[in-house]
Amino acid sequence: MLLENKIAIVTGGSRGIGFATVKAFLKEGATVVLCASRQATADKAVAELKAEMPDAKVSAILPDLSDSESIKAAFDAVAAEYGRIDILVNNAGVSEDTPFVNYTDETFDKVIDLNVKGMYKCTRAVVDHMIAAGSGVILNTSSMVSISGQPSGMAYPTSKFAVNGLTLSLARELGPKGIRVCAVAPGIINTDMMRAVPKEYIEPMIGQIPLRRLGEPEDIANAYVFLASDKASYISGAVLSVDGMMRA
To answer: Pick the catalytic residue: 120, 156, 201, 224?
Structure first.
């Protein structure tokens, strides 16, 4: 198994790409602590995973990702329980498609605060543990719009451009300390949000994707498994596009 005996934290781990990543990590032998925003969704996710994999070593925490002290306390508790934190997947985030002329400061700040500052705060909370261990892997969720932009909702691609910059800069700074930092840039993924979009909108999207299908959460999870594993031990600073080649 690729992640046997690894200790991983996955933010936004109760649904969608995060949930698929938690499941994939568990199947590869990791112990996983998922972060969720509500107790009910955390309990549901853990129960579903244990029903499918009774021996899975999975639990949940609910840190406030806007509060550095809340994150630090939660992550320190994980490190105290398991002795270390080997992998952090910064997956929690929010999308946005408001036209620019309708933007408010609050709209912009909501996206940046979670997608960028939340990622920074989570990374800051684990990095001391990884430095002490002399190893670690930090994986960030970017987006195909970090490469191409999008026609509305500029805060979202702005935040993902920032994620790429954070990834590249930390890979350079933390590499000498034994810590690898990478990102995955998903394309259009078949999550609950996408399944709510009418079919007449989906089919033209698929027609623009060279592989002629939407991505599945498992496609992204598999990329995270590889990047978290020793198979990727000489890969750092990469922003891996997993988008069926849908890049404008």
So the answer is: 156
